[in-house]
Amino acid sequence: DGTIADCSHRVPLVPDWDAFHEKCAEDKPIKPVVNWLVRTLDGLSGPEVPVGLFFLTGRPEKYRTVTTEWLRLKCGIVEHDDYGLIMRPNDDFTSDHELKPELFALACMPGGLVHEWGKIFDKTIDDQYVKDTGIFLEDRDRVVAAWRSLGYCCLQPQLQVPKSDQSLNEPLQLLPVQELSNQISG
């Protein structure tokens, strides 16, 4: 929500989190980010260079089906074939900047989703491996700060704030893909 999916139409529903999440199927993809992710997977992945795409979302587990269906329809990617999905446990209201690093740490432990993916490539995917090779994409400032404080590379794609002369009914403009690429090379 907010990194690859434009959830701005749902923000007025907060703090009714169930209502907020129930409308996620209506989100539009943030195309520059989705396109960049798909091109990265297509261009880099192979036996010599394992590239794993993992979505770590604050959405509760009960929204897994609608989330995977949205990713299939809007991004053309399929869970287990193209990516792994790590979701918030139902009824867990831990702040996202605390929860996401905890969930990721669990996924890197033996038996966890990230750790098990590494076995396919005879790699041990642990905290240091991810710090050396991984990139997190995150839209929320406090989560970006959390990842960076733990020593991870974290890029922050964001929707651009409308200019004051634009109507609030007009769609938000997206930052150019080149700006995201500059973050990577810079």
Task: Write structural notes for this entry.
The chain is an alpha/beta fold. The chain is built from eight helices and six strands. The chain has a two-stranded antiparallel sheet. It has a two-stranded parallel ribbon with strand order 3-4. The protein has a two-stranded parallel ribbon with strand order 5-6. Helix 4 runs parallel beside helix 5. It is globular. The protein starts with a strand and ends with a helix.
Sum up the structure in keywords.
disordered C terminus; single chain; 11% strand; two-stranded antiparallel sheet; 42% helix; globular; alpha/beta; two-stranded parallel sheet; 186 residues; 8 helices; 6 strands
H/E series = EHEHEHEHHHEHEH
* Rough outline: globular
- Overall number of strands: 6
Strand order of the largest sheet: 1-2
How much β-strand is present in the residues?
5-15%
The N- to C-terminal Cα distance equals: 26 Å
Largest sheet: 2 strands, antiparallel
Helix content: 40-55%
Instruction: Determine Rg (CA atoms, Å).
Output: 17 Å
Oligomer: single chain
By helix and strand content, what is the structural category? alpha/beta
Low-pLDDT regions: 161-186
| Count, helices | 8
Average per-residue pLDDT, rounded, comes to 84
Q: What does this entry show, briefly?
A:
By secondary structure, the protein is α/β, with parallel strands linked by helices.
How are the SSEs ordered, and which strands pair?
Elements: E1 5-6, H1 17-22, E2 28-29, H2 31-44, E3 54-60, H3 64-75, E4 84-88, H4 96-108, H5 113-120, H6 127-133, E5 136-137, H7 141-149, E6 154-155, H8 177-185
Parallel strand pairs: 3-4, 5-6
Antiparallel strand pairs: 1-2
Helix pairs in contact: 4-5, 4-7
